[in-house]
């Protein structure tokens, strides 16, 4: 694993290799972590100012514990958890804007270069750029751009019936956001069912009423759609991604480590010239990732995205001809890799042999002149193609 820096002259050749790969392939898989949302004002976890270094509720609880499933051990800690997440949503996530890195991933998607983006983030900022994220509908895999591995803080769900709610459906409409902070709210849907059974004289049990919780996956908690996720991840891996870009994560979470190892193994075994790069402010552990990752680029994710866009300027422009959207993973979308680079020029189409033969019989001299023109044009085309490939 080589360590690269944007301002290091010795890193430039390898950085250019990545630029060329981004320009030429449409088989890119992305993994993102909290580092890409830090510039949007959403705190990360493990940096020096990250949440794991902070305490909550006058120092009575470490923020790290608030993201662990053990928070559900008793009612008092559940209240703290709800209050913390409510503040996080209203004060950070709701008012945040996507960063340069989110925009870069959106560009990859617009140019049909992105096979899939997996994110550990719960802020859902990709959706604000029009990318398709559906945490609860992983069955519809072909229509998902961004897979939210740890859920989505923009919605709430019932712990019992799993019905989803918007924050304002639960906290603002019923009692008001701030006054309710930390209250345990019974699921309106479960309550309705409970009352209905009560009226009908059927057996009722209070434990059948769920409580409302943020729609996120905590550490130590099983992903509610884990099986579907694993099955579809395998499908993505089998499609042989050519470039795997990892943004803003220190790769410390076990499930994510496995995902990264699987993708890296596949790329290095099956894809000639395939590359894996991590872009992060802090270095990752060299001994653990040395054989899996080709490059670690030590810089702010947004700075690297700016750099790539300056080297591949067409990337930041919306494609001119918006063809009918291909379904991810469909035959149309996985056509010949040679057609995958961003098209800067329409190549002349060659006349078929049959037509040319017929015209030769009618006017042999005119055709000879055309042949000379064609060979000059072909040489020009090849030259332009070469220039584009070294963008
Ligand atoms: Zn419910």
TrEMBL record:
Keyword Lipid biosynthesis tagged: no
Keyword Cell inner membrane applies: no
GO cellular component terms attached to this protein's record: nucleus
Positions with biased composition (Basic and acidic residues): 368-379
SUPFAM superfamilies reported for this sequence: DHS-like NAD/FAD-binding domain
Keywords, comma-separated and alphabetical: Metal-binding, NAD, Transferase, Zinc
Residues that coordinate or bind Zn(2+): 158, 161, 187, 205
Domain Deacetylase sirtuin-type, first and last residues per copy: 5-318
InterPro entries xref list: DHS-like_NAD/FAD-binding_dom, NAD-dep_sirtuin_deacylases, Sirtuin, Sirtuin_cat_small_dom_sf, Ssirtuin_cat_dom
GO MF term set: histone deacetylase activity, NAD-dependent; metal ion binding; NAD+ binding
UniProt region (Disordered), positions on chain: 346-379
Active site annotation, chain numbering: 150
PANTHER family: NAD-DEPENDENT HISTONE DEACETYLASE HST3, NAD-DEPENDENT PROTEIN DEACYLASE SIRTUIN-5, MITOCHONDRIAL-RELATED
Family: Belongs to the sirtuin family. Class I subfamily.
Protein name as annotated: DEBR0S5_04280g1_1
Provenance organism: Dekkera bruxellensis (Brettanomyces custersii)
Gene it is expressed from: HST3
